[in-house]
Amino acid sequence: MSAPAAPTTTRTYSYLGPAGTFTEAALAQVPEAVGQNWRSVNNVGEALDDVVSGRSDAAMIAIENSVEGGVSVAQDALANIPGIQIIGEYLVSVNFVLVARPGTRIEDVRVINAHPVAYAQCHLWLDATLPNHEHIPASSNVAAASTLFEGSLADAAVAPPNITKHYDVELLAENLGDNPNAVTRFVLVSRTVVVSEPTGSDKTSLIVELPEDEAGSLLSLLEQFSTRGVNLSLIQSRPIGDALGRYRFVIDADGHIRDERVADALLGVKRFSPSVIFLGSYPRADKAVITHKTRYSNEVFADARDWLRGIVSGETASSD
Amino acid sequence: MSAPAAPTTTRTYSYLGPAGTFTEAALAQVPEAVGQNWRSVNNVGEALDDVVSGRSDAAMIAIENSVEGGVSVAQDALANIPGIQIIGEYLVSVNFVLVARPGTRIEDVRVINAHPVAYAQCHLWLDATLPNHEHIPASSNVAAASTLFEGSLADAAVAPPNITKHYDVELLAENLGDNPNAVTRFVLVSRTVVVSEPTGSDKTSLIVELPEDEAGSLLSLLEQFSTRGVNLSLIQSRPIGDALGRYRFVIDADGHIRDERVADALLGVKRFSPSVIFLGSYPRADKAVITHKTRYSNEVFADARDWLRGIVSGETASSD
Amino acid sequence: MSAPAAPTTTRTYSYLGPAGTFTEAALAQVPEAVGQNWRSVNNVGEALDDVVSGRSDAAMIAIENSVEGGVSVAQDALANIPGIQIIGEYLVSVNFVLVARPGTRIEDVRVINAHPVAYAQCHLWLDATLPNHEHIPASSNVAAASTLFEGSLADAAVAPPNITKHYDVELLAENLGDNPNAVTRFVLVSRTVVVSEPTGSDKTSLIVELPEDEAGSLLSLLEQFSTRGVNLSLIQSRPIGDALGRYRFVIDADGHIRDERVADALLGVKRFSPSVIFLGSYPRADKAVITHKTRYSNEVFADARDWLRGIVSGETASSD
Amino acid sequence: MSAPAAPTTTRTYSYLGPAGTFTEAALAQVPEAVGQNWRSVNNVGEALDDVVSGRSDAAMIAIENSVEGGVSVAQDALANIPGIQIIGEYLVSVNFVLVARPGTRIEDVRVINAHPVAYAQCHLWLDATLPNHEHIPASSNVAAASTLFEGSLADAAVAPPNITKHYDVELLAENLGDNPNAVTRFVLVSRTVVVSEPTGSDKTSLIVELPEDEAGSLLSLLEQFSTRGVNLSLIQSRPIGDALGRYRFVIDADGHIRDERVADALLGVKRFSPSVIFLGSYPRADKAVITHKTRYSNEVFADARDWLRGIVSGETASSD
Fold it and tell me: Which domains are assigned to chain C?
């Protein structure tokens, strides 16, 4: 990561707090953030606003999880806020516990406070274990637990496992998550900077709008990548918001914008689309090395350009 | 619409209540539902469960809105509950008002109760008018208002315009919606029945899973439609939920499963995909007549089959 | 091969003669033709006319060779003569010798009689060995040699290796062919019959015209095959003949018209094209077994049809 | 045309002679060739060799006609001879007359001398008018007539209409051509030079080899053009000659190599193909103006490059 601020200065990182959230766990994976100033905020908008305004050097936000899909607020914010860029990607295993005020017994639980995403991920367990429960939505996973002590109507809360380090709660049950492999993907966002060098294991994120009123335009968009040998690991639609049926696409492409094939695909996409937002090229959390056919290598791109230049200039002409 | 129950019996329709919701407004558009039994339920799962269990003949649910995109809970329910089918589509203009307990002045409002989707749609107005407001999420647009009288911490609620017919609230402001053209799309769902006849203005809804670990498989899926001249009005990704990056696609195709080109595209999709769910073919709410090139007409499909049959049987052979 | 005449009757096979031609060598590979009546004709048109008129049961004609490509006369004849069908495919290695009247020395050869295709295949050898030679075109490879004794101006002739069995010629040189792997592909043609059963190693030949005035129509044609997993071993353009730039395409597809994926591709092609000629499905000369992904198997096609039928009929409905 | 030699020097143009051929008629359409040295040669190979060796400045050769398709010898020569380039395109209407030695009556004609291509174009007329005729192939359309006076066995010859200006022949019949709209396309070929400026009505010719052993590679080749909005007016297969089933493709694309979309398509083709031969970008004979969607204009290509450069350099970053 090319640090957005000088290394001698203390840097500030915003994250969805308070202490104990999964977002905090993601930020703990960033070596450059260790020992720096961590700023707890209330929502994604606030985190990104910190970056744009310069209050923070970077912000950690959840962008995709294996149960709920793209976190729509984050995707929409990235689509609408100019001047920011993804510089890193982090994965956090997601599981949940059921906690309550000390002395509560699980058979007495009727009203449960839970962030809607967490609630969706624990739905099967809750339906089976507490069939008559009622759900009150919370603003965050930690808030679900913390408000137990602030006059909440809830008897119990769904919370991250490390909540017990931060609050004096009673642990009623563990491993509530319906999917034991659940993972949430976080991205670290900074102001726009010079794109870092490729590592060979990179990802490039885009938000692309389709041309209007044209049959097959998604097909044409995908061909811009496939004809350059660029694989997509994510393609997700999000409504643009101005009319029913109008969508933009959030795309993660394998490779780095400094890879010739990715750059060429982006040129094709840019010419095709009325609006392309480059969100960043950054090292992959899964460390997977991106491979491709020889025909899509940087050398082949450079050779083709040399060939074309020779033809146009007539350099390859026979002397006479 | 082919009525799912005999006309002499009273039919039951489930909808997200209570009275005053947009879903109720959608149900009011169904001629067959007039004068029948309307059953108010608390969420989409309950509505669909009514249909599956036979408690209701049909259920009205929100499936897409112009601001928030596919209503994820509804899409996931349709993907996971067998034996149900979409039989109709309805559009409702969406706008919001700000209401409060009688005597409240707008300048005194600090805490606002609002369903998260409604809140997102009124975000700009609220930020501009009440910059210091705090948001409490409600379980429905009507509940946001009704809980004002049940000890809620909220000072005001975001609610549908006709809320004033049902509750004794004070109207503080109108037209809160950021997008004046906002529309929500609802579908009427019944148990699986014989598919109704095409009307010439139809839509076919599917949920399709992509083959795993195959580059370009979304491209291949889209080609199944484009090579048969079938246009898609909606393609939206939803996470399957078992692993990060695994998605299924919610698709609305122009035309009816009894149109040859749509049927042939569905055969292609079925052979290609590990899982296809047919959600229904039904008349379009926008009444748009679907046109296509002559080469995709039913007659051309029938002629091609005759031609093939003649070849294989040697019927077209010269006599000797 | 399903014999076009009853086995107890003597069958007649037409071929480009006289004895000694490569076409005769191809006919010698047909087990059913052994001991039957072989009819030597002067050109492809005559051979096919024999079949159409019933004078012959089948005709052997050259259809493609590795140097000259599609034999245009044969391809155009197949495109224009209705009621005929390819029922078999045969490969003959092609090489040439230089022969002359007895007593001729190679250093005395100046004028060479050769069929134009043979001449093209021996061009490099002739230019290197006899740089000052002159070429007189012959109507067939054997005629090139036989006319040496009929007052021809030629000093020598390019001919098939077995010419020395049939004519009293002096062998001046062997292995004239520029390409030692040269092979000519022949097809056996009969009147239209019931298509034979698939063998698992089959080829299907078509002639397809593209829709006029439509950008990308060749791409669309190829997609009809690729979306059904059908590989093409040959695609060759031939002018339609009515205007400059108007072409039809000669196509060899892997598989048999009784294979579901091939039949479905043909249906797609038929709907798309203003003119499709089915030339036949027949066992491959190279005996290569055609493989395909599971998704393109006959079972998958049948399952998809069952699935569609169930949906349309509502058979998959939940009972109530 | 950028003249390959200084304008004050006399230039030499090679063409398939002798005087009276269609090729001569094509050369007569070239303004720069008027009053220069015209060199009659015996075949296409000789004409191109004149250019390569410098004996001529340019050569006129037939490349496609509406009946016989690509003139295979010319296409193969262009594929195999380096250092030459197409600099112009010309169309000549093609029709034929039947001529004989003075005193011959049409009812006495039995043996007809004709170039094989001419013979094929007059086949229907000859079969109808002289059903018992015999055909002797000639080396050119003019030679067919001229050899009538050199001891030919032929009674009559098929020749171009203006043959009567050059030889003392008797005109037996006119308008023999089966297709009254028959046209032959000629190209003017010079040594490789700096490509001329686009005129807005241009054509770019290529010869492209497909990657081996790869299903769908022709489809991928065509996509290189379609994704850049480049239409193809000709795509024709020619055998490479080393093995059965190996083909290269002769392609005429709308537009000029100095058009950004064509250049970008050529880069894509070059990266994809094991062998690409650029034959030239030159003004179209039909003067058709090439149009395209705005998204494929030079400005859009330049804008996309600027956008990409800004992103990679971080120039679009917010200042801080």
Answer: 12-94+182-193 (3.40.190.10), 97-173 (3.40.190.10), 195-313 (3.30.70.260)
